[in-house]
Amino acid sequence: MPLPSAPDGLTPAQLKELVAQLLAEVAALKQTVAAQREEIARLKGLKGPPSIKPSGMEQATASSPAKPGAAKPSRDKVRPRVSIEERVIPVTAPAGSRFKGYESFLVQDLVLSVRAVRYRRERWVTPDGQTILAALPAGVDGHFGPDLRRLVLMLYHQGQTTLPRLTALLRSVGVAISERQVQRLLTERQDGFLTENRDVLRAGLQSASWISADDTGARHKAVNGFCTQIGNDRFTWFGTRASKSRLNFLDLLRAGHLDYVLNEAAFAYMRGRGLSGPVIARLAAAGPTHFADPAAWQAHLDRLGIATRTAAGLAVIQDPVTIATEGAQWGSLHAHGFLRDAVVLSDDAGQFAIGQHALCWVHAERLVHKLDTFTDQQRAAQRQTRKLIWNFYADLKHYRINPTPSRRRALRARFDRIFRRRTGFVTLDRLLARLHANKAELLRVLERPEVPLHNNGSENDIRCQVTRRKISAGTRSDLGRDCRDAFLGLAKTCAKHAIAFWDYLGSRLGVAGAALIPPLPELVRCRGQPT
Predict the structure, then answer these.
(1) Cβ atoms within 10 Å, residue 186
(2) What is the C-alpha separation between 195 and 272, in angstroms, rounded?
């Protein structure tokens, strides 16, 4: 019965009924409070953050595995990547035996030996006093040969070993080398690799229909920073900087270009970010549209009187200098042909929300999966919501394979029904409303079916940087940082094109007999061409 406004007028029977109702509600509340206290006590007893398993939505919505009992695919035969040496092993057979051919037994082995060559270079003095010195053989660059340089780069970057262990390994097999010399092999005279790594990024940004991005912590010069991954199914690139702001991300996307450009793309970006109309008009009417470097751009802002505004000593949220600079960087991207019609896929980190932005469904569902629940009703609402999201995600996968206008309309309407539901679980309802606000970015795949539904590729790529961070204290020089990022990115790019990193290094270092590997930027562009 509803609670009366004036209980004085109730009869004894009505009062008894009211008391019984209140006692039942108090008992239910006590039970809820006890369950919450027990859960809080359990969470407080944990060491570190609670261990939350992955939701498993991507695996659960994958194609159904083969039926139980079905024949498993046979394992491929061992096919070495080197020529096979044939050896016949004879056996003494009794008289009258018949020869039945051979039974093969393949053995793979590794020959690791050290060779030291002293080149005695002829030296002549001409009659006019000039000295002629015989040139070193091709591929000899310094006191360590190309094979040794290839092994050092392979073990350190792809093998993820440490500098002391790599030095100890080389010494144990007979190489006379110091830790400092190994360090030089990793960083010095690597301009060719650094240039190719930069060109890989430029080729990827010019030809990609989509890219994904992610970042992780990185330490440089004893200061915590951030390593950003940019790539897709054709290339991977890493850049480590002190900041993870949108300005930094746009700067990385310029792929080494330092210019700022004011064009229609730049002004559209500024309007989308809410820069005031008078400031945009002042920039549009000022004259020059191209600025060679940050100094020239800052001087232009100073001439126009555009400066960071402050209120009571605090910086305002919409800083005109920051937004104008971001817009000029975005204009530079378009001027160089980068990301003209490409989609940027991310995990909802704010710095990646530029251009045509798409959100990762795995990260969106993870918010529902990690939601704290305390009652049976809340847990039931969470399970039902996750089931609806999983089914919707599976249908989005099917849509990517066979997109049609009718399915597109049906999926949009179904998205609204799922994320506008009211479950009675207040926290879950607020989360659903937040996800519904991201409808355009979560459903970007409906217009662009080639875009993945998750950014697992970026997370898989960036794990090598996480491993390096765990086994190394960080980099100490800008050159060391750039070399680490470049070689890890080149190794990932090679893997995406089914190229052995060992062969790639041999081709670039001029190792005798090494396979010829074409420039990686050309491969990135070729795979980006429509078939």
Answers:
(1) 20
(2) 34
As a whole number of angstroms, the distance between CA 435 and CA 137 comes to: 64
Could you tell me how many residues make up the chain?
Answer: 531
SS3 of the chain: helix, strand, coil, percent, to 5: 50, 10, 40
Amino acid at 157: H
Contact call for residues 229 and 458 (beta carbons, < 8 A): yes
Where is 467: in which H helix or E strand?
Answer: helix 456-471
Q: What is the pTM of this model?
A: 0.83
Pairing label, strands 236-241, 223-231: antiparallel
What one-character DSSP code corresponds to residue 162? -
pLDDT along the chain (531 residues), means of 10: 66 84 87 83 62 76 62 65 89 93 91 91 95 89 91 96 95 95 95 97 96 95 95 97 95 96 95 92 89 94 84 64 96 95 94 95 94 93 96 96 95 96 94 96 96 95 94 91 97 96 95 92 80 42
DSSP string of 93-131? --TT--------------------------EEE-TTS-E
SS3 readout for 398-448: HHHHCCCHHHHHHHHHHHHHHHCCCCCCHHHHHHHHHHHHCHHHHCHHHCC
pLDDT for 12 equals 84
Rounded distance between C-alpha atoms, residue 342 and residue 316, angstroms: 31
CB 358 within 8 A of CB 343: yes
**CA 156 to CA 416: how far, in whole Å?**
50
Q: Are strands 343-346 and 356-359 parallel, antiparallel or unpaired?
A: parallel
State the pLDDT at residue 438.
96
Look at residues 524, 42, 453 and name the one whose alpha carbon lies nearest to residue 235: 524
Residue 500 CB partners (closer than 8 Å, separation 6+): 81, 494
- As a whole number of angstroms, the distance between CA 517 and CA 494 comes to 10
pLDDT on residue 46: 57
Q: Can you give the pLDDT at residue 362? A: 95
Sign of CA dihedral 511, 516, 519, 520: negative
Rounded to an integer, what distance in angstroms lies between the CA atom of residue 509 and that of residue 498? 19
310-311 and 314-315 strand pairing: antiparallel
User: How far apart, in Å, do the first and last CA atoms of the chain sit?
Assistant: 71
Task: List C-alpha distances in Å: 299 to 264, 302, 303, 443.
Answer: 21, 5, 6, 42
pLDDT number for residue 59: 83
- The reported pLDDT for the residue numbered 13 is 85
Element housing 324 (H / E): helix 320-335
Query: What does the pLDDT read at residue 531?
Result: 42
Secondary structure of residue 344 in the 3-state scheme: strand
Report the distance separating Cα 230 and Cα 241, nearest Å: 14
